[in-house]
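Every protein is a chain of amino acids, and every chain bends into a shape of its own. The protein below has been through that process, and both of its lines are reproduced in full.
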Amino acid sequence: MMKLKTHDRYDYNPLRGRPDYSWPGGKRLAVYFALNLEHFSYGEGLGAELSPGGPQPDILNYAWRDYGNRVGAWYMLDAFDALKLPMAALVNSAMYDYAPELVSACRARGDEIVGHGRTNAERQGTLDEAGEHALIAEATGRLAKEEGRAPEGWLGPWISHSHATPDLLAESGYRYLLDWCMDDQPIWFRCRNGKKIMAVPYPQEINDIPAHSSTQGRRIRFRGHDRRSVRRDARIVGHAALGNGRGAPRLSRGPAAPLAPPQARAETHCPASRRDLAHHARCDRASLC
């Protein structure tokens, strides 16, 4: 009988029938917002694409990405400030050299600084173990130097993993990783030598790059899609906080990179969507992370 290869990090555990529990303070829902702060190499390496790239230097896509650090992220910080919402800043260590003011603004807000590799111009999962260990060590060391403490969480550049990534992160002192989106609750990963690391789900459904860049040819629907997605997820947050009849507290999460074009981004900041997010995230049975 054929047996499929498995990662052996966690066992299958269906949502129905899981033990019930509550978050600290008796909360039934934990909510976090993650903002990716990324820098890319000019004329080489990987990079998110608004449109199919031409030969290097790919000015169209490089400039679109650069807009995020120069302008887009600041709009998003304004929105989080207006809503008085905390967030997690997922930071390439190269940002300390390229856009230190942006990381400083997140620090001043009291946001958690999360490790996100050196740059999103590379993937860690393609490296051998020694090379990946060096990447994690370099990024971690820079964040620790700038922030005064080592980061506790990690999202791989391009959500890239090798077979050893969870082991390397656990051995480097990380408490959680964000790369996996397989559940609505955090899951413990088994790691070598008896170690473990928490996998905190990170979604793709409302991540702006998949939502916007992967739907080329349907841009006329972007604004409606943005609004409906945000408001739909806000309703789900509210229902989950009140309980769904299955005895399962939930984790709601909202990642974004500040790359979306202004006409699309404006909808995520529209008053109705912001009111929904703020109302449900602050309900009595929800906890903001």
Remarks:
- DSSP finds nine helices and nine strands in the chain.
- Residues 252 and 288 are 10 Å apart (CA to CA).
- The beta strands are 29-37, 88-91, 112-115, 153-154, 176-177, 187-190, 196-199, 250-256, 286-288.
